[in-house]
Amino acid sequence: MLVKVYGSAVFGIDATTITVEVNVDKGIGYHLVGLPDNAVKESSYRISAALKNNGYKLPGKKIIINMAPADIRKEGASYDLTLAMGILSASNQIKSDDISKYVIMGELSLDGGLQPIKGALPIAIKAREEGFKYLILPKENAKEAAIVNDLEVLGAENIMEVINHFNKKELIIPTIIDTRAEFYKNIEINEFDFSDVKGQESVKRCMEIAAAGGHNIILIGPPGAGKTMLAKRLPSILPPMTLQEALETTKIHSVVGKVKNSGLLYSRPFRSPHHTISDIALIGGGGSHPQPGEISLAHNGVLFLDELPEFKRSVLEVMRQPLEDREVTISRARFTVNYPSSFMLVASMNPSPSGYFNNSDSPMTSSPQEMQRYLGKISGPLLDRIDIHIEVTPVPFEKLSAEYKAESSNDIRKRVAKAREIQSARFKDFENIHYNAQMNVKQIREFCKLSSESKNMLKIAMEKLNLSARAYDRILKVSRTIADLDSSDNVKTHHITEAIQYRSLDREGWLR
């Protein structure tokens, strides 16, 4: 008897429906075709043990299983349940009149228990797109997949629950989530708050500008000045994620199995990889089955690189293209995968190897040659892609011990959200452009027009600081954001002046 059941394969952040054809006929043998990898080939052992331990068995006949389309490589153990239900259906051990309405996925334990799978959300999205009515998968993935509406998500703990469901002995209760209600209920939760930060008013101003325009920022200061503390609080002043952004972000985290049982991600991601990270772990890729890297996991959020010069130069250089294009393309001989990577880069560094710069009271100092070698680890093109450079100085004791409460993240976020609304209205006719940092050269010329006085001011700065054309564009973008925070239609001279101040690493004294 021939039966067709349906599973799904995840490539990049999208799923492809896999048709599993199971034919049970006279003879002996077990044949699995359709480009399966070793984990899929080994499924026969897991299926056999799981069925036997639950009162069922593999039929003692010739079993031929074809996984179509045959030109797509099937990887991982998540097809165990798909194959098992196909075998039971083809051998008439379960009732399967409506099995074609189901997408079935799950990894089997030897006792029949179901282990969680990766990519439940993209699988659910694809199942709904292709008109399937039900999705059966491990219970741990049910909440994640139930984000998708118009699809009944059935979470099972073991294979017997699935068998009883098809035999109509005990139906699995669908997992139902009111996605919008859950999203808006949890959207305001923030672990860190700027009210915890004493002093550092100029740096907070920079963080506010960076959040308002989506600008990349680097914090330069000695140990203990508060760089990491400030960076961790940046997501708390970013505008709340929209439901669409939350779905995009959850989809990426689902592919690498980082959603677990939490369902939709409500907060903007904050990723802080260690400086020993490899270029593949940062950018994504790896082998014949590429995975998203840290920059994609930070999509719609913040990527924090602490102690930037300690990262390998090759690792930093691979970020140059994603910082511009806001996506990563991983190419292999058989296929190409695109991962979104629209993130805010926040980097921090000490001003010198000793951690102190031009400070006569510091316990140690660095020579100009040591400093030049240290800062030389960061290439000019990468620094050009960072819009704001700001020095972070230690907070004096008087401010640290003061009892006052600093401005809260919620108050700062209101100003940021207002500036973002201005930008949304400005870019409503442009696809994939939502805030100032995403502007290309054409939009910069259109929306950052300067008066003759402002042009002259910028010309002097460009010549004195020897700025590149890219740095020129960055200054204009930042000045446009400062103007938006002031609710100003035009970029004025004081906006340009403030933006120029935020190019610390371009000024004399750092490398000279």
Instruction: Outline the low-pLDDT stretches.
Output: 508-512
CATH class of the largest domain: Alpha Beta
Structural shape: elongated
Task: Look up the CATH topology of the largest domain.
Answer: Rossmann fold
Number of domains: 2
* Strand order of the biggest β-sheet: 11-14-17-10-18
- Please, what is the CATH homologous superfamily of the largest domain? P-loop containing nucleotide triphosphate hydrolases
Query: Can you count the helices?
Result: 22
Summarize model confidence as the mean pLDDT. Answer: 87
- How much helicity do the residues have? 25-40%
Give me the Rg, rounded.
Answer: 28 Å
Major beta sheet summary: 5 strands, parallel
Beta-strand content estimate: 15-25%
Alpha-carbon distance between the two ends: 80 Å
Which second-level CATH architecture of the largest domain applies? 3-Layer(aba) Sandwich
By secondary-structure content and strand pairing, the structural class works out as alpha/beta
The strand count comes to 18
